[in-house]
Write a structure and sequence with these properties.
globular; 8 helices; alpha+beta; 4-stranded mixed β-sheet; binds zinc ion; 2 domains
Length: about 210
C-alpha cells in the first residue's frame, strides 16, 4: 500500500517534470537558437578583452604631422587612445554575450546583447577585438545602423571572401559608425607600433572602405 502510494507520487512527479521539460524544449526553438557561451568560448572572450587591455600607448612611432592628419580616435571616443578604456567602453555597451547562428555575419547586436557566431571563436585576437568594437557601436542606436553598400562595391571582405557586401546592408554613411571606429582604432595600433605600418594600413583601408558618402 505504502509502496504503491509512493509509486504513484513518483509517477505524477515524473509526468509533471517531463511535461515541463517538453514545454521548455518545444517553445525555446520558436524564439531562437541562442545559448550561453561554453566555458571554452568564455575563455576566448576573456582573452580577447585581456589582449585589448595590453594595448596602452607609449610613444608615437610615426611623424606627428601624419598622426595629426589621420588620427580620429579621440574625436570619436572622447578619450585618448587606451586599450583599457576601450575595453570598458565595449563592456559598458554589451553586458551579455550569447552564442548562436548569425547567418552571413560573424556577430550581431540585438537588445543589449552581442550574439556571437561560430566563426568568431576561430578568428585571431585582433579580429575578435574589431568584431566586438564594431558590434558595441550598434548599442548607440539607429544613427549607427548600416546602409546598403553600392551594387558595384569592389572591395573584398578581409575576414571571409564568401561574404560579398555589394548590395547588402554592410556599409556606413557616418564617419564614426562601426567601421569608422574600427578604422580609427587600427590607425592608433599602427601609429603606436602595435602593428606594422603595412598591416595597420591594409586593415585600416579595409574598414574605411565601408564608410561611403551618399
Ligand atoms: Zn554592424
Amino acid at each position: 500500500m505504502a509502496d504503491s502510494k509512493l509509486h504513484s507520487k513518483f509517477s505524477s512527479l515524473f509526468i509533471f517534470s517531463f511535461g515541463i521539460f517538453l514545454i521548455f524544449f518545444s517553445i525555446q526553438p520558436l524564439f531562437s537558437d541562442e545559448s550561453k557561451l561554453s566555458a571554452k568560448q568564455n575563455k576566448i572572450l576573456k582573452e580577447t578583452f585581456a589582449y585589448l587591455e595590453t594595448l596602452e600607448p607609449k610613444r608615437i612611432k610615426i611623424d606627428k604631422t601624419t598622426y595629426n592628419r589621420h588620427s580620429q580616435f579621440e574625436s570619436f571616443f572622447k578619450f585618448s587612445f587606451s586599450g583599457k578604456k576601450l575595453s570598458r567602453w565595449i563592456q559598458s555597451r554589451s553586458k551579455k554575450y550569447t552564442f548562436g547562428s548569425t547567418g552571413d555575419y560573424v556577430a550581431m547586436y540585438q537588445d543589449g546583447e552581442i550574439l556571437l557566431g561560430r566563426g568568431f571563436f576561430s578568428l585571431n585576437r585582433l579580429d575578435r577585438v574589431l568584431v566586438l568594437l564594431h558590434e558595441a557601436r550598434h548599442a548607440d542606436g539607429k544613427n549607427y545602423s548600416h546602409v546598403v553598400c553600392p551594387d558595384d562595391f569592389p572591395y573584398l571582405n578581409t575576414r571571409d571572401w564568401k561574404i560579398h557586401p555589394a548590395g547588402k546592408k554592410g556599409c556606413d554613411s557616418v564617419p564614426d559608425g562601426g567601421y569608422g571606429i574600427t578604422a580609427s582604432f587600427l590607425f592608433e595600433l599602427g601609429a603606436y607600433g602595435f602593428l606594422s605600418q603595412s598591416d595597420a594600413a591594409y586593415r585600416y583601408n579595409s574598414e574605411i572602405s565601408r564608410v561611403i558618402r551618399d
